[in-house]
Amino acid sequence: SEVFMNPQERSIDKASQEMLSRMAEAGQENVWDRLAAQMPQCGFGKQGICCRICTMGPCRISKKAPLGVCGANADTIVARNFLRFVAAGVSAHSDHGRGVAEVFLEAAKGELKDYRIKDKVKLLKLAQEFGVETKDRPVNDIATDVGKIAIGEFGKCEGTQLMARRAPAARQALWKKFDITPRAIDREVVEALHRSTMGVDQDYKNLIMHACRTALADGWGGSMLATELQDILFGTPYPGKGEVNLGVLKKDEVNIVVHGHEPILSEMIVAAAQDGELLKQAQSVGAKGINIAGMCCTANELLSRHGIPIAGNFLSQELAVATGAVDVMAVDVQCVMEGLAQVARCYHTKLITTVDKARITGVEHISMDAKNALNTAKKIVKMGIENYKNRGEVYIPNEKQTAVMGFTHESINYILGGRYRASYRPLNDNIINGRIRGVVGIVGCSNPKVQQDFTHTTLAKELIKRDVLVLTTGCATIACGKQGLTNPKIALELAGPGLREVCEAVGIPPVLTCGSCVDNSRLLVACSEIVREGGLGDDISQLPAAGACLESITEKAIAIGQYFVASGMMVIFSNEMLPIHGSQNVSDYLLNGIEKDLGGKWVLEADPVKAAEIILAHIESKRDALGINKKTERKLYDMADRRALII
Predict the structure, then answer these.
(1) How distant is the alpha carbon of residue 249 from its chain centre?
(2) Predicted confidence band at 558 (pLDDT cuts at 50, 70, 90)?
(3) What are phi and psi of 42, to 5 degrees?
């Protein structure tokens, strides 16, 4: 891999470039420097042909040694490693879902004084889906039954995931045919680890099929449950304006950055920051107020629900601390770099871990107890206020962009059809008539091996100018936000004429932000709804649609990609970020053969312009197969024709 040394090579974001220069002048290390120190990285690991599963190894497959000590070949080793990647990713997202489900159930029972049910309409819909009786019952009783069923999905002894019934009937039939309908989430992860143990499953296709089943347990299970329960508990997001980039930090206010993925913590910190006593305390130390800013996926959650500004995505976390303006950074789980602790020690920033399963050596830990959540959050905010006076030099880049964020299945449905005629019909009709060529989800992380934000934003620009509607989640959302692609005033100027016409008619930008990485389940729901609306086939695999993640970093990204592939979608990844090249058979199956079985496949391409061309060709092939690229003659209706219309 190329090692980016100067700030302009490392990021296209001006705020990040400024902070990288300042850190370099101060001799402070960051994620890019640590990447450079690791070069050259292990070639065996990149190809997926390093096996450390048993202590007869580690074994590395080469021409000299084509078999591991146990006799495993490259196909088995690569497939096992791929399955373990998926299982780890599913564990992360689904454990997030479990945490939310536990808090949801306790709140429903009235055991948590600081949390309550906010979206009763969505609760009733989910209750109906779960078969929970709702007539003449108190909301909390309904929520309690829903919460018990939700928690049961993680470890139930029999049956399959209830959410999987949301998929089109044709897709469900295909899963049944290949015996990959997801069962209990925990069961699939445990079986994945068992199958991939030395001496167990040694058939690469069998291993990959279980990777499908495990991934589906997250996409149509753990992640989808997390999204649904978060919406009910904290409120379903609705599009609103906010600001994005390091410029949202304020020199004259106490800055508290919340970083991670679970809104259980951040929701309470937002509430605590509005406390009158704490605001008075902030003023008493010379601050004009308390400023909350989000980082990474927590940022997406907060902006979409409360309009709280976003300081940055994954690669921005150390840069935010380096401004000298962050008084407290409170973190929960996932994508929190251990390097933050070292950077924080160079400044006055107090770094605080809040989840018992996610501590950092030498960093103060304040456990986020759900039963005492608001008081815990107030304690964290108070620490920020007390730390305000300890600031040294402060430098905040003057870079921020207005963004419109918070699109969900519910809000898109409403925007397209209104309260009484909510429907995807206008979207389907405009895909059929060609104003919108197709729909693409751009999701995922920001990887220091790639110029920060470049691939996400370049791909988005290439697609919208060709009339492709883009949906984003995770760090890709924040990248697009920083570059103005979620600002309708800027983005509509970059959109093709057909897409622009539709977006202006219904009042949406051409890039729709759909939440955090766990909210990729919203994209599955949207795809299923498009199929259900009619006119574009009877399965997700027939849609003129695709997914893309050109900057993946975590196992979560591979799990997400695999559940989209197993749901019938083409998913495009950067060549280097899918460790399967060590096996020709595994590569051939995931890149080609799996499409014959499940209708989806992986495609590898690092260049965003080339990736856009591949996606556009795929979309047009799907349109051709549906017969919607054929030009139809315009018919002028006379009165007799009008009378014959069935209304």
Answers:
(1) 24
(2) very high
(3) -65, 120
465 touches 608 (CB < 8 A): no
The 3-state DSSP composition of the chain as helix, strand, coil percent (nearest 5) reads 55, 10, 35
- Check: CB of residue 615 under 8 Å from CB of residue 462: no
3 burial type by CB count under 10 A (0-12 exposed, 13-18 middle, 19+ buried): middle
Q: What local confidence, expressed as pLDDT, does residue 231 receive?
A: 97
Amino acid letter, 125 = K
| Mean pLDDT computed over 280-309 | 96
pLDDT digit string, tens, across residues 171-186 = 999 999 999 999 999 9
The CA distance from 261 to 593, in Å, is 35
What is d(CA 27, CA 326) in angstroms, rounded to the nearest whole number?
Answer: 19
pLDDT of residue 647: 47
Closest by CA position to 461, among listed 571, 574, 548, 564? 548
Q: Are 79 and 208 in contact (CB under 8 A)?
A: yes
What residues does 402 pair with on adjacent strands? 243
pLDDT at 417 (0 to 100):
77
Nearest to 380 by CA among 286, 288, 270: 270
Mean pLDDT of the chain: 95
Q: Within 10 Å of residue 40's Cβ, how many Cβ atoms?
A: 8
The share of the chain scoring above pLDDT 70, in percent, equals 98
Measured CA to CA, the distance from residue 313 to residue 444 in angstroms comes to: 10
Rounded CA separation 462/421 (Å): 33
Question: Distance (Å, rounded) from C-alpha 251 to C-alpha 325?
Answer: 6
Provide the terminal-to-terminal Cα distance of the chain, rounded to the nearest Å: 61
Gap between the Cα atoms of 296 and 311, Å rounded: 8
**Using an 8 Å Cβ cutoff, are 249 and 311 in contact?**
yes
CA-to-CA distance for 184 and 461, rounded, in angstroms? 40
pTM of the model: 0.94
Question: Mean per-residue pLDDT for 446-475?
Answer: 96
pLDDT, tens only, 183-230:
999 999 999 999 999 999 999 999 999 999 999 999 999 999 999 999
The three-point CA angle 530-536-540 to 5° equals: 60
For residue 360, the 8-state DSSP code is: -
Long-range contact list for 16-21, CB < 8 A, 24+ apart? 16/246, 16/312, 16/315, 16/316, 16/319, 16/452, 18/395, 18/397, 18/399, 19/246, 19/319, 19/322, 19/323, 19/395, 19/397, 20/319
Residue 14: Cβ within 10 Å count: 17
CA distance linking residue 306 with residue 474, whole number of Å: 17
Burial class (CB in 10 A: 0-12, 13-18, 19+), 179: exposed
Q: How confident is the model at residue 352 (pLDDT cuts 50, 70, 90)?
A: very high
User: What's the rounded mean pLDDT across residues 480-504?
Assistant: 96
For strand 438-442 and strand 401-405, is the pairing parallel, antiparallel, or unpaired?
unpaired
